[in-house]
Amino acid sequence: MSRSTLGIVMNGVTGRMGYRQHLVRSILALREQGGLALPDGTVLWPEPVLVGRNADKLEALAAKHGLSRWTTDLDAALADPANQIYFDAQLTPLREAAVKKAIAAGKHIYVEKPTASSLTGAQELARLADAAGVKHGVVQDKLFLPGLLKLKRLVDGGFFGRILSVRGEFGYWVFEGDWQEAQRPSWNYRAEDGGGIVLDMFPHWQYVLEHIVAPVRSVYAHAATHIPERVDELGKPYQATADDAAYGVFELEGGIVAQINSSWAVRVNREELVEFQVDGTHGSAVAGLRECRFQSRAGTPKPVWNPDIPNTVPFREQWQTVPDNGDFDNGFKIQWELFLKHVALSAPGTPFAHDLWAGAKGVQLAELGLLSAAEGRRVEVPELGRGA
Ligand SMILES: NC(=O)c1ccc[n+]([C@@H]2O[C@H](COP(=O)([O-])OP(=O)(O)OC[C@H]3O[C@@H](n4cnc5c(N)ncnc54)[C@H](O)[C@@H]3O)[C@@H](O)[C@H]2O)c1
Question: Which of 11, 57, 70, 91 maximizes ligand 1 atoms within 8 Å of its Cβ, making it the mutation to test the pocket?
Fold first, then answer.
């Protein structure tokens, strides 16, 4: 068995996503399982170099996980030929410049979403990466959630008949930071730092809808800043200049209507932090992060409106659960495995299903969602070609 080492420059690993999901749950988990086995018996061994601004934090992080490679010098990490992949989970506005440097250094690119702050910027990154002949990918983790994999299984099996509509509810209460510490970083609530729930969540809804139901053809969004003042990590009050809730209506190909509420100012009264209900002529399903419940046409009750008596129908109990029928790994890790295999095995020029062109579509939907919200009108979503 031969072992092939892949050096990965990981920028932004002190952050929530970079640390927990990408370093610990993906790259370190891959190392704990002995690397990633390829069909020919070779084992890919990911060798991260932790990059960031704060040497003390990086050193502590590396020591905690038995890693030796860390640096505050991104250029030096990119200049090292042992490093073949650049990964970016920095806060969004910093991504474009760093990715451009990495492309210029000939590295394969894997990045968090949104890939850039504007559609123009996102397309430029995809174009530059193609021109340099490097492979590229964007995180689209929600596709690999157990609940959404089960939902996709129902779609692929023809369960729904003709799909009519999708209703999504995402969100939870994010504390303001005064009497309880906020559980999200303060930049999320400042537009000038790349914050806002439209820019954060619409890229996710774009690929979830396109891959599982149908591509988005138009958007109407109402964005709001429900909590205008918050308190930051240092205990200092600041103005929330970005939207913290977005109420979106998306028209999908085939006339399907998707309506998705995203909010950091809502209290959870559902089974999971995100839930999508899909209604079709032959059945309906509600998918969350892990579970998916369904009700078929034959099992559909016939409720009668009568507020004069207490409800007699246990509606929630009339749904069945989609079985696991297998094991589910962490979604971020699954996608890392796909990308590493793409880097190791696919011929130059082979597109990756979740590449920077796909990432640009997410940025496009966020941009058009914000335009819709600003102008109070429905906006068409033009199809984006590769190389557009
Ligand atoms: N896929 C997902 O579900 C998901 C979820 C949340 C966030 N994200 C994306 O991941 C990226 C990081 O988000 P996060 O929630 O981990 O943020 P975070 O604030 O926890 O981490 C940000 C990282 O960027 C680094 N950084 C570099 N320069 C900085 C600066 N000037 N100010 C602040 N931080 C700086 C920080 O050190 C840290 O490592 C964002 O682009 C975000 O859109 C993706």
Answer: 91
